[in-house]
Amino acid sequence: MAMVCLSDFEAYAKKYLPKIAWDFFAAGADDCSTRDENILAYKRIHFRPRMLRDVSVMDIRTKLLGSEISFPVGIAPTGFHQLAWPDGEKSTARAAKAMNTCYIASTYSTCTLEEISAAAPGGLQWFQLYIHRNRAVSQQLVQRAEALSFQGLVLTADLPYTGKRRDDVRNGFRLPPHMKLKNLEGAFEVCKTSLLDPSVTWNDIHWLRSLTHLPIIIKGILTKEDAELAVRHGVQGIIVSNHGGRQLDGVPATIDALAEVVEAVQGRVEVYLDGGIRKGSDVLKALALGAKCVFIGRPALWGLAYKGEEGLQEVLRILQDEFRLSMALAGCASISEIGPHLVQFSKL
Ligand code: FNR
Questions:
Q1: For the whole prediction, is pTM greater than 0.90?
Q2: Please, what are the domains in the chain?
Q3: Does residue 243 have an active-site annotation?
């Protein structure tokens, strides 16, 4: 089967994954308005391309907090990769390294941080943290990640509770018994109830800061007010994200929230985006509106479901090729030439 675009991987994953795994990956909250809006919103943005600008030599490299990556697309944190491929997050780490981009490993990985790190030595890896009721659990995770040379700590802010995902409720979704949340083994006994701490506030950023020298990136910001608070609390990066539409249904598409956050931040910290990126031209639109880099969630899982590490590399390569082509057709030979002048919003 020739894989030409990311939808081909989606169709493959839908056909071949067990229904319960497909439903878990695909799920959005409630009636999935925000999940779907994340994708639709790109269609309302059009390009204002420039012509005759010598795009014979293209440079699509960029930097994430000082580390060079081959193009501005990384892998967002998603849980349970063994549901897609037996080697799970180890394959994800290898693919990200092979494509020279950043992989954000989730707290809810089915491989340990040690396994993920060893699978791709020297690769750019960040660790995504949920703060747990038992702070010792989180503290230990942060310290393990730092000792293992993870280079950034991503604090997910939009999940005090898990959103209501109807298909997961209907399916009674849970991990199959042979898969484990390997980084949290033992923690369930300590906490008894849900591990997530819904009492987390901005003050906890100071607590995190006291634990680690790693840059802190906050994920799940959608408003200028929270962007300002994030900067004031000393984070190094913000990911504009609505968790792929899996949390509060009814929030805007991330591409529609991006400009507000970028304007509030005024270049003081790096701003990234995830949600609904399915084509290279989506990446270009996000960069035009001020994102330094974007991250993909579900498409990475589809790539894994197709052929593990190789499949995910193929997803990344397709996005990379599409992004390079879109840039060239829009008249940009390097990332620094991308800006708001490249896009306009249409009323669709
Ligand atoms: C997620 N996401 C997520 N985010 C996070 O911070 N920690 C996590 O463990 C997970 N787990 C997770 C599982 C699955 C199956 C999905 C689809 C998503 C959210 C993820 O990081 C990202 O915000 C979205 O997936 C981006 O949207 P797209 O690219 O899937 O449209």
A1: yes
A2: 6-345 (3.20.20.70)
A3: yes
